[in-house]
Write a structure and sequence with these properties.
mainly alpha; 3 strands; citrate synthase (unknown stereospecificity); EC 2.3.3.16; lyase activity; citrate synthase activity; transferase
Length: about 270
């Protein structure tokens, strides 16, 4: 057999020994107190410190996307906590609830990249490619990730994110594609389908150099703050199980909602 070196985790992210911790070439103590968490996120994920504009925009996205009241992930973390899960386990359950239809900045980013690829492949302008993709998705009755929000209709986070991206000079081709797609919805749907918060995060993130999977990581990191808060509040403020009939409101697991009136399966039957 060929001699092999002993196993070691090979990584370009960081190293440590007894006396030092080094992240992407920087001593962690030099970074501490000198860069923001948004800048540190960029360094760890992308390998270099961001420009001031990208660092500020990354921070802005983290603040903008950190909390969204009750959503699939926060409801999941609360149910897990109500069952007695520890904080880390409850937050992991909430993160698992971030899927294709919730917190999906990566999916709109992939869509905007596909429009850009389509423009180059078919010799179209970005606006023409955007209009064609919107029309084709409508014809196939496909969801447009990054557009519309069932609760807000016109997501209040979008204008702030896009406006700040314009102000900081980080808006580029992918923001323009997202806006062109939104504009195309007027003709295709007969009404405006607005860019939502994750859609704004997706196009701005691409223009800052982030890849789709890195944008998903950005959402997970900032939303985990919210999930921690919801778990701690659930553990310290509410009764376990969320089923107490003594509560001042009907609880989601109350027996009153689990009786035969809400059952639509087979009628009572017997093995005999």
């Amino acid at each position: 057999m060929t001699d092999k070196k002993p196993f070691a985790w090979e990584t370009a992210i960081a190293w440590k020994n007894k006396d030092r911790i080094v992240v992407r070439g920087y001593d962690v103590n030099e970074l501490t107190g000198n860069i923001s968490f948004g800048e540190h996120f960029h360094l760890v994920l992308r390998g270099e410190l961001p420009t001031p504009e990208v660092g500020r925009m990354t921070e802005a996205i983290m603040v903008n996307m950190a909390e969204h009241a009750m959503s699939p992930s926060s409801a999941t973390v609360r149910f897990a906590t109500s069952g007695g899960a520890e904080l880390n386990s409850a937050v992991a359950a909430g993160v698992a609830g971030i899927g294709r239809l919730h917190g999906t900045a990566d999916r709109p980013a992939e869509l905007f990249l596909a429009v850009a690829e389509r423009a180059g492949r078919d010799g179209l302008s970005d606006a023409e490619a955007a209009a064609k993709v919107v029309a084709e998705m409508r014809e196939r009755r496909e969801r447009m990730p990054g557009f519309h929000h069932a609760q807000h209709i016109r997501d209040p986070r979008t204008a702030r994110l896009l406006g700040l991206a314009d102000e900081l000079g980080v808006s580029g081709r992918h923001v323009a594609i997202a806006r062109a797609m939104e504009e195309a919805t007027d003709d295709v749907f007969g009404r405006r389908i607005w860019i939502n918060g994750p859609g704004a995060m997706g196009c701005v993130g691409l223009d800052m150099g982030y890849e789709p999977l890195q944008l998903k990581a950005l959402f997970i990191v900032c939303r985990s703050l919210s999930l921690c808060a919801h778990s701690i509040e659930e553990a310290t403020r509410e009764k376990g199980w969320r089923a107490s009939s003594n509560s001042h409101m009907v609880q989601p697991l109350d027996l009153s909602m689990q009786g035969p009136d809400n059952y639509d399966g087979p009628a009572d039957r017997s093995l005999s």
